[in-house]
Amino acid sequence: MPEPLLHATTPAVDRARVGISYSGGGPLLLVELGIAQAFIELGVRPAAIAGVSSGAIAGTAHALDPVHGEGIRAAARALEHVSNRALGLTPLKVAWRALWQRRHLASLGDNAPIEGLVAAGFRQLTGSDRLTFERFGRDGRPRLIVGATDRLRAEPVWFPDDSDVADALVASSAIPGIFPPRRLRVAGEERLLVDGSVVGEQPLSMLALDGCGTIYACAVGYDGERLAAPANLIDNVLQSVSILRHQGARLEQDYVQLRMGDQGVIHHIHPEVVVPVKGYDFTPELIARVMRDACEATKRWLTEQRLLP
User: Which of 29, 46, 247, 280 is the most buried (most CB within 10 A)?
Assistant: First the structure.
């Protein structure tokens, strides 16, 4: 098992340098986009943004335009084309895939269509279908940090500047069992990659290593509240995994705060927003409503608790 990123390291952080971390959350990406919009409307300008899984997509949208939010609006438009059918998650498509692949079934669905949607959004905003991480961290844009998990080595993989952003987002959001793993060459080495949240639900250590001394840990999903009894086996599994991910994220938060000491501070952000959707069946009305509710709830959270930098 790899050592923690901050093992035997006291990061040199500056409270004037703001970092924002977006966790995984699957369909709760809508909430994360609303959180990002809240930061923009409140005038919070991060020096770095880190994300894994759906949080990598939200983080990229935020980092594309941290002043006016054009990246967030482009992401919202792209999500209008996302559905269980598009991702191969309808019962008929799942049954066909299981019948066809049988013992070699790698996943229930496929998140490959995300790459095309990301490319279309990039084209609208920049005129180019493909972007590398070199575009970020300059010209007023924050540094963008995206992580995936090496399935064979059980270790985090952080994409370097020359990596393709769209490829990284598909790999980072490859939820095991739901979407297939991705083979990518990262820093000259072939990797088999799955969801970044498998080994790090909140990539706070990367922000601390980047020198961020004021860090916002944006969480979605379960956050310690009492849950209803599981309705069935799948519900039980999903709720239990959500509890596990929450525990890991909280441990990471406490660990990074300990390593930073009094030099830095981490603010936990968790707006409570109802997302009445089964899987990924988004509609324009649902997207707009959830993002609006998340934005307003986040602005209240930040202002009422006096968490603004």
Answer: 29
